[in-house]
Specification:
Length: 583
């Protein structure tokens, strides 16, 4: 197996990697990055806090990956421990100190100076502890304990497996997104919820406040103040002469909120885009996805967000930007973030660069057997997903945990302008009650569209007839389950090319249809789009998701190699085809 590096691997600063401000939509000045070198230990399940640690690990890279400095796998019988020491800056003194984890996979407990600060279950969402009363003068000790059974458990884990093979990838255990401290006043703005409404020319704000005080808001358009004044925690603010957000013009308004009382003030900076995602009909009466009340073809790619050096964690901020900018430069306007979440900065870059996002929920449970997974869907047989045992979701607590994490993810990502679609289930993995869950998501967040069951076992829910098609020809489906749903091809393609020296495992690489060189791959890609995809657009095809941005481990069907060093087919051909991918 080749050790692959990206061009960013050797630029990573192990003393404090990924040290950009982690939360672009709620920015404060006083914070401290806690990424960098920790001690780690792996102990048996029943062991208490280790007396000795095994070595050093670089956070926020998971223990399994190259950039962690460890490269070791753990299993369901292990417990992973972290320890580091930190000193609180003088400017934090007398303030409330918050300890933030952007993501820890899967279940963790946290201690500060040997006192339990709290715990969290779920591997993909941020969480926070108030550690003010646990701090001491001088050096403080932080301990984190992690349990991650990966595919030996039932939890939401996406494509992580203990044994990487085919389209199952190396596990990500432990801390895999930034850790940081933040100083706030005793009364502070805890979170905000931003909802643009282009029809009413308003933006709705809901501000959660710890404590009390007078709240004021300021909105700026290209540096010019267009609103300034006192507001209620729940309010609507007019936005006249709107400049709408789109991939063609990803314009963002700046927002500042200030909470003031006798003890001081708390100011946070944020932003928003004025945009609307919805379902409507075109001039022919065909159901379409709409952007800003106009039919808009979403031409995207599957984006799994894996890296050969960092696993689920990009080596640097620039590496994340690379994927977005390169796909935008080739003419794509959407990425389907596939069965994982990214750090908030990734969505911020999509917001500012103009890349629409379809956001998957992470799959859990066990995959379906091959008959229900591969054979039935290709002959248009859709199994009812209230057969919980068949879908490996037979225990009620498993289903409840999925729903809890689903809505936690939506809350965490709600404010990002670029997110257009929530995707609760993919290809039947751990699927249950998809129609009801899709309708619940739609009710919870009516500002976005929903792909309730991407591929395979359609339950007639919102908002699409969503089809996956590899190898077999793509045809316009006969909509039998619910009239008025747009047809989307939410996965297809998977054309592959293996390039020695730029692949995870040359001998065991996996792809749907293989090509030997750039010329033949480009020709195959061109035939696929010209013969099967583009002719369907005028007949009702409303979005496409080609597989995929880059290779991932054994899977070699990326437009780019896994190390992001080689574009595997001709760029000018991709651009020319993408100019035709519209109404």
């Amino acid at each position: 197996m080749t050790v692959l590096k990206t061009k960013w691997t050797d630029t990573v600063d192990n003393t404090c990697p990924r040290n950009e401000y982690p939360r672009p939509q709620l920015v404060r000045d006083e914070w401290l990055c806690l990424n960098g070198e920790y001690e780690y230990a792996v102990t048996p399940e029943q062991s208490s806090r280790p007396a000795r640690f095994d070595g050093k690990i670089t956070v926020p890279f998971a223990i399994e990956c190259l950039l962690s400095g460890v490269g070791r796998r753990i299993d369901e019988n292990d417990r992973l421990w972290y320890r580091r020491y930190f000193t609180v800056p003088d400017s934090f003194k007398g303030k409330t100190v918050l300890l933030h984890f952007e993501a820890v996979d899967w279940q963790c407990e946290v201690w500060v100076n040997s006192v339990r600060a709290g715990g969290h279950t779920g591997g993909y969402c941020p969480f926070t502890f108030d550690i003010t009363d646990l701090l001491i003068d001088g050096e403080n000790e932080l301990i984190v304990k992690v349990y991650d059974p990966t595919d030996a458990g039932w939890q939401q884990r996406g494509k992580q497996f203990h044994k990487s093979v085919g389209f199952w990838y190396t596990a990500t255990s432990g801390i895999w997104q930034p850790v940081w401290l933040e100083a706030v006043n005793a009364d502070y703005i805890e979170k905000i919820k931003i909802t643009p409404d282009i029809d009413k020319k308003r933006v709705f704000l809901k501000t959660d406040i710890k404590g009390g005080g007078a709240l004021s808001a300021k909105i700026l358009k290209e540096g010019e103040v267009i609103f300034e004044g006192g507001v209620e925690p729940e309010c609507e603010i007019p936005v006249e002469d709107m400049r709408l957000w789109s991939p063609e013009d990803p314009f963002l308004y700046d927002l500042e909120l200030t909470l003031t009382n006798g003890s001081g003030s708390d100011t946070v900076k944020s932003y928003f885009g004025m945009r609307k995602y919805s379902i409507g009909k075109d001039k022919k009466g065909l159901p379409r996805i709409m952007l800003n009340n106009e039919p808009y073809f979403m031409n995207g790619l599957l984006d799994q967000g894996y890296w050969p050096d960092g696993g689920l964690t990009a080596p640097t901020d620039d590496a994340m930007i690379f994927d977005i900018e390169k796909m935008k430069g080739l003419g794509f306007n959407m990425l389907r973030k596939h069965i994982k979440t990214e750090p908030h900065r990734w969505y911020y870059h999509c917001d500012r660069l103009g890349m629409i996002v379809w956001q998957d929920m992470m799959s859990g449970g066990k995959p379906l057997n091959l008959i229900y997974a591969g054979a039935f869907p290709n002959i248009n047989v859709h199994v009812r997903d209230n057969q919980y045992k068949m879908f490996n979701r037979d225990k009620p607590e498993w289903r409840e945990q999925f729903k809890e994490e689903l809505f936690e993810m939506i809350d965490s990502l709600y404010n990002f302008t670029s997110i257009a679609c929530w995707v609760p289930f993919n290809e039947g993995w751990g699927q249950f009650d998809a129609r009801e869950i899709g309708e619940s998501v739609k009710k919870y967040d009516p500002t976005r569209v929903v792909d309730h069951a991407s591929g395979w076992h359609d339950q007639g829910g919102p908002d699409f007839k969503s089809v996956h098609k590899y190898v077999f020809p793509v045809h316009l489906p006969t909509e039998r389950r619910k009239a008025g749903r747009p047809f989307v091809l939410s996965e297809f393609g998977g054309y592959s090319r293996t390039i020695e020296g730029h692949v995870w495992n040359f001998k065991k690489s996996f792809g749907y249809i293989k090509f030997s060189n750039e010329k033949t791959l480009t020709q195959g890609y061109q035939r696929l789009f010209n013969n099967q995809i583009i002719p369907l657009i005028e007949k009702g095809l409303s979005a496409t998701v080609y597989t995929q941005v880059s290779d991932v481990e054994f899977e070699v069907n990326g437009i780019y190699t896994y190390d992001r060093k080689i574009l595997k087919l001709d760029a000018s051909t991709i651009k020319a085809i993408n100019k035709k991918m519209k109404y």
